[in-house]
From TrEMBL:
UniProt-listed Gene3D superfamilies: von Willebrand factor, type A domain
Originating species: Vibrio marisflavi CECT 7928
Xref: Pfam families: Tad
Protein known as: VWFA domain-containing protein
Record domain VWFA: where: 158-410
SMART domains: VWA
The organism's taxonomic lineage, starting at the top: Bacteria, Pseudomonadati, Pseudomonadota, Gammaproteobacteria, Vibrionales
Amino acid sequence: MRNMKRKQQGVAGIIFVLLLLGMIGFLALATDGARALQTRARLDNASEVASIAVAALNDDNESTDGSGSAVNQTLVSNYAKAYVPDINNINSLKISKVDCSLDNSKCLDDFVDGYQYQINISTDQLSWFPGGDNQQGFGKTFTTASQAISQKVESPVDTVIVADFSGSMNNRPSSGGKAKYKQLQDVVQEVTDQLATQNANLADEYKNKIGLAVYNTATHSVPSDGQSYHSIVQTINNNGHPTSSHSNVDATNTIQHIFDVKNSSYEVSNSGGNFHDLQLTTDFNSFNSSLDSFYPSNGTASYQGIIRGAQLLNTGTLSRRLMIIISDGEDNYPSTTQNLVDNGMCDTIRDTLDSQTATVNGQPVETTLAFIGFDYDTSTNPALTQCVGKNNVYEAKDGQQMVNQILGIINEETGHLR
């Protein structure tokens, strides 16, 4: 009897060991299986967010192999690695951009009013329990794939760049290269190249337009009763008269007449530099030809440029209006700027434009103000941050970063995602 009991215990031990091995194998499969499902969910989230980012960037997506541009490839790869940190390798990544307005395009839900962006991505992850000759497992790696689609409705925009052409723009940025004003000229050239591409498929009345309000301590504008450019101030004193003295600026009177194109009584002695306003236009070649001849001088009074920029933006015809303020430093008289902002200068610009309807389609106007600090800390200019709103403040260390920021701002305005 004792011998039989010992034999049964021995058999039970063997069975337990065999079951334990099976349970360990099952645990390995269950663990890596759950991880694979979690990885798929994370990759789905990454590809969805990345497709929205690609649509917002609106890069041309051109590549020799049809897999998508280097910019978009890097963007999507970074999102994938951020959402799935344990990616071992990105096996394949394809980004496609389709112009849904074309007759032969096949876009989701019969969408025809913009572009469709599709991401297909496949990744490898290392298994925690790869298995072996006598043990079940997922193998050394397992593969996860995902797809996402975003669509962007195209809506053109009237953009006015309010550009600082004070003497400090003659300096090179800390990143090196050309003088800041030269880099700004290159930036605007690249931005208008992108706008020209977008305009290619748009009717004339719906094309994107761009204008320029350039300033130092004054703007160089044509007075309402003149025919040639002069240094003009946009500010008024408490007696209702033009003033170039920052200490005499009356905020109430100045704001009340923001949208008035100033006459020759607002002329002041030449404020230096060589620049002038450029009206909203779709003739980007002439626009850039004029801009290339500009050079900066003198001090900084951003409120002069902002007010003149509002007047230019008021001539727009599209329902979306955008003002981008670019400066490389604080105003010479920041308290004057702050006082104007505190008394509603920027709110008045937005509210007045937003009360209008677009002449081309009768839609209500939507206005956005943005501020880009060129190679300086924007927190030192709280007035402009307050003017545009903290979510519309950017910092650019060099020209290429500014190009990306301006195109990002414009593309946010020229479309929305479905």
